[in-house]
Amino acid sequence: MGDTRPDAHTLAGIPVVVRWADLAQDADGPPAGEHAEPDAGYARSLLTPFEFARYETLRPHAARSFLAGRSLLRELVAAIAAVEPTDVTIEARCPVCGGPHGRPTVVSPAAATPLQLSLAHSGAVVAAAAAWENPVGVDVERADAAHAPERDDAIAAVAGASGDDPLEHWTRVEAVLKADGRGLRVDPGRVRIRAGDATGDTVDAWIDGDEASPHYALASIDLGPGFTASVAVKT
Asked: Secretion signal: which residues (predicted)?
């Protein structure tokens, strides 16, 4: 799928790798982004029967994004575990309803099952992240993406008086909630982010009110102009 090298990050001493693709395509040009969109035929060949059945129920844009996400995850695991993408099986199950929309996990190869994964979609952008054993979360937004007014209001409310760019703050909050595993079942307003700058340095975060009070290391991801993205890992 074009340039398939993982982008390496270290958060609080924990290695995290990220892969991304922008599916936006001009009529006369290739897909934008450092990592190109996977070949559709090849990507479909990687799907399990269950994934393929789900893929066939989706509308064209959603199907294309789903296919790119599943391919990104397999390419990422394969690059880290030094295996072929065809050797990688990914499963996603919601811990609440059992539906196929939960956190992605590695089923095979066995040596890669300790890998923790996260996947994010925003319009034509897809991003995947992985870390050994430590739960990880990734979130990405296009800076020019059109949101419903209530979504814009929610993003601004969560950023509050933090002084952060609202969209960057939102991606940080979403990344933490994904690493936590409960996602938006947790009130985003409970995520606390220690004051930091937007230079990409690691920032500390936690979820207010949790008895265990685990902490998360956060960093911005540079996906180029027009993108806002963050990755979080449980420390």
From this structure: none
Give phi and psi for 39, each to the nearest 5. -60, 130
Segment 66-104, tens digit of pLDDT: 999 999 999 999 999 999 999 999 998 887 787 777 889
Please give the structure tokens belonging to residue 12: 């609080």
| Token pair recorded at residue 197 | 């700058």
What Rg, from alpha-carbon coordinates, does the chain have?
17
What pTM, to 2 d.p., does this model score?
Answer: 0.85
What are the pLDDT digits (tens) for 195-216?
655 455 689 999 998 877 799 9
Give the DSSP letter of residue 6. Answer: P
Q: Which domains, from first to last, does the chain contain? A: 7-234 (3.90.470.20)
Q: Which amino acid is at 57?
A: T
> Which residues lie across from 21 on neighbouring strands?
126
Do the beta carbons of residue 21 and residue 68 sit within 8 Å? yes
